[in-house]
Design goal:
The complex is a heterodimer of chains A (298) and B (329).
Chain A (H helix, E strand, L loop, with lengths): L3 H5 L11 H10 L2 H18 L1 H4 L31 H37 L1 H15 L3 H12 L3 H27 L3 H8 L4 H37 L11 H8 L8 H28 L8
Chain B lengths: L2 E14 L2 E14 L3 E5 L6 H8 L7 E10 L2 E2 L8 H6 L4 E4 L13 H13 L3 H14 L5 H4 L9 H13 L5 E5 L7 H18 L2 E6 L2 H7 L2 E6 L2 E7 H6 L4 H8 L40 H5 L6 E2 L5 E2 L5 H5 L1
Parallel strand pairs in B: 3-8, 3-9, 6-7, 7-8
Antiparallel strand pairs in B: 1-2, 1-4, 4-5, 9-10, 10-12, 11-12
Helix pairs in contact in B: 3-4, 4-6, 6-7
Classes of the chains: A mainly alpha (298), B alpha/beta (329).
């Protein structure tokens, strides 16, 4: 072809590649607090997974003969009013906390993202109906909403998960909707439509992946809040049913012995604090690492 | 060569808070098979909106309120904008290249993924077959080591390269018509020329028609066979490219040509800008929209509504009362 020569002239080779992944790693792992947070999370995840191997005693077996003991070689963190080993219960409590946190965040993300995506993409009436419903949910304080639902449904792991999922979901829907509204105006969405892509394909392939970075940050941060909220519900007695070990109810149980045996409330409280701190630090790190405005600056 | 596309009395309007914007108002034009046609006008004259209307890509608050878009004998306005019929036409029979190569590729998908998406959607290709075809297309548009670059992301390509990718995507399903909406506006001049040559070569190879939407008269002068000049949502002059450049008849076209430098004329000619601004498309007067800026206006222009297109030469039409040739002399 006569035009072949024209076609291939003047094209330069690809510029040297700056790896996004490497930049991400440098920003993300380059901070001491983020590293500490990551280590804390890994530590608690490890504990939760291997709880049966790590705990010195079964967490739920009462042993009234050795009730309310101070920390000793047998019971490193002492025992509670029923003689159960506090260390074992804190270790098993990590299971409860992390599992509830994870499940709630997954459910809330899936439902919230779907609602936000549909509302943002279709706009108009769909948007109004979905987002007004979300607004209604958001007008209650998150913890209050969770408490009302938990109180209505009654105690138990499943009901706590439902209550917290409903309470957490609006935040994801709101954020996703805002993201979709911005992303769908991009030329590549019109371009995708111009090649004959269907609505579903446009949403799933072109819009959702471009909405994810802020959602990932929110998910990490929310993990901490969910764990805290679960502890709050358990502390108030409308969360996990005893005898399943949960940090919130352990803090509450230890309250009566706060002066004589503070370790009973202090140990689960500290564990709770460390986990939430860990998730928040990692969330902050992710936020900075994924922030496009900081690209090149860090 | 047969008629490929015929647009009749197309009207596209946008409802805004300020009022109704008649972005495209009663526009008729046609494209023949394997023809290169230019659509020229300044920003906001409706040239892009008319093309998006053909693709049925007008989103709310915009709406096509009237007319016919007959493509291969079928009126596209009979179809649902996002229905299966339109989807099977978009990309496969009419493809579009957008102005900003920087933003018209999805940043989170590899180039290969975006190219094979077209092939999957319209030709039913899968896996290695689609990948091979994608690599072929990339090397056809002049991207070196195409096979390995399939796995790169858009940000690893320069603007010119991305527009090449867009051209490859546009032509991947061998469409009957390629609409290029300001394809080179965002690129530097040397890249512009290369890309236009490439596009011309590619549409010849694929036997497609090409519609170039631009505000750059130089671009159409060199590549288009026929041109349509648009102003304020209407076509004000149309005809063969060589006729219009030799003897522009509409005052707006004359004005446009006066403000572009040319190499083939005596030195020292001053460039004359068109005075004033394009009109606000809300609440347009019934008279000629170019009237406030027109140096040739006569009494009739102020009294009577904007005329219909009239024949003034060999297939050359203008929407004007003034016999500009006499007036200039």
């Amino acid at each position: 072809m006569a035009n072949e020569a024209v076609i291939t002239t003047g094209v330069t080779e690809a510029p040297p590649r700056v790896s996004e992944w490497r930049r991400f790693r440098r920003v993300f792992l380059g901070r001491i607090l983020v590293l500490i947070g990551l280590i804390l999370i890994c530590f608690f995840v490890f504990i939760a997974i291997f709880a049966p191997l790590l705990a010195p005693y079964p967490p739920n077996d009462p042993d009234l003969a050795s009730a309310l003991q101070q920390p000793s070689a047998q019971h490193l963190l002492g025992t509670d009013a029923l003689g159960r080993d506090t260390l074992s219960r804190v270790i098993y409590g990590a299971r409860t906390s992390l599992m509830i946190g994870l499940i709630v965040v997954i459910i809330a993300t899936i439902i919230g993202m779907t609602l936000g995506l549909v509302a943002g993409y279709y706009g108009g009436w769909t948007y109004n109906i979905i987002m007004r419903f979300i607004d209604a949910l958001m007008s209650f304080p998150m913890i209050l909403l969770a408490m009302v639902i938990a109180a209505l449904l009654g105690n138990g792991m499943r009901n706590v998960i439902i209550a917290l999922s409903v309470a957490m979901m609006p935040g994801y829907a709101r954020l996703m909707c805002a993201q979709v509204l911005a992303v769908k105006e991009n030329d590549y969405v019109t371009a995708g439509r111009s090649i004959g892509a269907s609505n579903l394909r446009l949403m799933l392939r072109h819009i959702v992946p471009n909405c994810l970075p802020p959602l990932i940050v929110l998910i990490t941060m929310q993990l901490g809040s969910v764990i805290l909220a679960e502890a709050g519900l358990s502390f108030l007695g409308i969360g996990i049913t005893p005898p399943t070990p949960a940090w919130g109810s352990m803090v509450n149980d230890g309250r009566q012995y706060l002066l004589t045996l503070p370790i009973l409330s202090f140990a689960p409280g500290l564990a709770l604090m460390l986990v939430v701190f860990g998730f928040n630090m990692v969330g902050d790190g992710l936020r900075d690492a994924l922030d496009p405005r900081l690209r090149g600056a860090l | 060569m047969g008629r490929l596309l015929e647009v009749k009395n197309l009207k596209t309007q946008f409802k805004t808070e300020g009022g109704l914007v008649k972005a495209v108002d009663d526009v008729s034009y046609y494209i023949d098979e394997q023809e290169i046609v230019g659509v020229v006008g300044e920003s906001g004259c409706g040239k892009s909106v008319s093309q998006l209307s053909v693709m049925r890509l007008i989103n709310s608050p915009g709406k096509i309120v009237g007319g016919q878009i007959i493509f291969e004998g079928q009126d596209l306005l009979q179809y649902e904008a996002n229905g299966p019929e339109m989807r099977s036409i978009r990309g496969a029979k009419i493809a579009m290249i957008f102005q900003e190569p920087m933003t018209s590729l999805n940043p989170v998908l590899t180039i290969g993924r975006q190219l094979t998406e077209m092939l999957e959607l319209h030709l039913g290709m899968r896996g290695n077959e689609a990948r091979k075809r994608a690599a072929e297309l990339l090397s056809m548009v002049g991207i070196p080591s195409a096979e390995s670059r399939l796995d790169d992301y858009p940000h690893q390509f320069s603007g010119g390269m991305r527009q090449r990718v867009m051209i490859a995507m546009g032509l991947s399903c061998n469409p009957k018509m390629l609409i290029a909406d300001e394809p080179t506006t965002a690129l530097d001049v040397t890249t512009q020329a290369q890309l236009l040559e490439l596009m011309k070569a590619m549409v010849q190879r694929f036997r497609s028609s090409l519609v170039i939407v631009t505000h750059n008269l130089g671009v159409v002068a060199r590549y288009a066979q026929r041109i349509y000049i648009m102003y304020a949502g209407r076509i004000v002059e149309s005809g063969y490219c060589k006729d219009i450049f030799r003897r522009p008849r509409h005052p707006y076209t004359i004005g446009l040509l006066k403000c572009v430098p040319r190499l083939d004329e005596e030195e020292g000619r001053k460039l004359v800008p068109i005075k004033g601004l394009p009109p606000n498309l809300i609440n347009m007067p019934p008279t000629c929209a170019f009237l406030p800026r027109c140096p040739y206006a006569v009494e009739q222009c102020r009294k009577e509504p904007w005329p219909e297109l009239r024949l003034v030469g060999n297939q050359q039409y203008i929407r004007c009362y003034v016999n500009t040739e006499e007036r200039i002399q």
